[in-house]
Sequence to fold (165 residues):
Amino acid sequence: MTEEERGDYANIILLCANCHTLADKTPETHPATLMASWKRGHVERIRQVFGVRKFKTRAELRSEIEKLLRENRAVHKTTGPDLEYRANPEAEEAHMWRARMRSTIIPNSNKILLFVDSNMGLLTDGEREVVEQFRLHVKGLILRHLEGLKIPNIRFPSEMADIAA
Fold:
């Protein structure tokens, strides 16, 4: 691998300092193919821990995504920022919204992204574009609600409500 390829994000694998040094100094016993297989195995174990899997049909994918979207819609409808408390950021409802964003909407949205990333082959090109808009929306939520940055965000892409339908 070239130095640029070695430093590429897709090539990164997290190891402790000792193992990292060992792998770098003994490429003959730690070839790139071995390291890549370790990484693939780790990613797969993480997906299994979170219950993310590949589906055979769009209907199966849709069923899993719909459960999460339904819960997010319920939270938004009952505590979302479009309600009357909007003018008062110190209202109890505003605190509830922020708490639900952290406890429900962001985790559900990240799980949706894991599902679609594992099943991109079931989506159309147009749906993949919608997923990328959704990904940007989720990143904005994280920046605002977890990292505390007071920045504007793009709205939830309405087409996401029908993804894989």
Observations:
- The radius of gyration is 20 Å.
